[in-house]
Amino acid sequence: MRQTKRKTRKLLGKVDAHPDAHRATEPDEHHVVTEHEKRARDADETPSSLLAEARKSIGLKGRPNPITRAYAKRHGKEYLTASWCDMAITYWARRSGNTDAVLPKGDRAYTVSHAQDFKKAGTWHAGTTANVKKAKPGDIVFFDWGSSNAIGAIDHVGVVEKNLGDGRLQTIEANTDNAVRRRVRAAAVIAGFGRPDYDGNWTEALVKKLPKLSKGDRGEHVETVQALLQARAHTDVKVTGRFDDATEKAVQAVQKWGKVDVDGVVGPQTWPVLLRVHR
To answer: Tens of pLDDT along 129-159?
Structure first.
């Protein structure tokens, strides 16, 4: 038991320990966000589906919540009530089919490690005013409330929804006032941002064109799923074009292996696993 407690403390030592109450850093934040919501509440202005997924979480409050539960299911119950800003980025990336682009080294709950991943990939941009003016929707933006550009000092993370053009960014962030909210942030508190390789993420474009399939469905896409399952040694699955019990059972096994929701449905989370590109 003592060893387990030490392991838990070590794991949570790599989770952000910042306070939950991140107040607005810009005095006109409410006005800017409200105006943007009126113009583009339901519009997907990004080159990826990441922001569309993030927008679905706006208003989520408290913990544990669906985001921390999903992370804890894969990495341990100690994450159920831990700081969850980067868990949210992981959640949105996985659910939108952007895992490879947004999470270069896999799931992250610790912002410093996540920023280092972008640094190692050569896609990190320090939070200077000049750089912030070049940030794009879909960039993953990291904050230091101490106003440095040091990766080791990072406290928090969000995703850029809109560049306001004056050295400020409108973002979607989790664990801000223990909720998912839109924020407006200035370069002074931006340590830097990572730019996911959405253009190189061929799976995202492919997955967008593929249907969601479940038990009872029929057709060529079901045959594709069954052939992919056979390639993964599920020899009990026959290529019949009918999504039957054996197909559903094999899909659930692949989902468990791929650490995505085990629901037997082949959708945006499961297609990348079947295509062997999901970490």
So the answer is: 999 999 999 999 999 999 999 999 999 999 9
Number of folded domains that form the chain: 2
Mention every residue, 6+ apart, whose C-beta is less than 8 A from residue 63. Answer: 80, 81, 84, 178
Taking residue 238's Cβ as centre, other Cβ atoms within 10 Å add up to: 13
Does residue 218 belong to any structural domain of this protein? yes
**Cβ atoms of residues 222 and 247 within 8 Å:** yes
The token pair that represents 58 in the structure block: 């706006």
Do 122 and 242 belong to one domain? no
Over residues 40-78, the pLDDT tens digits come to 444 433 446 889 999 999 999 999 999 999 999 999 999
What is the domain extent for residue 232? 210-274
**Pairing, β 124-126 against β 156-163:** unpaired
Nearest to 110 by CA among 145, 151, 69: 151
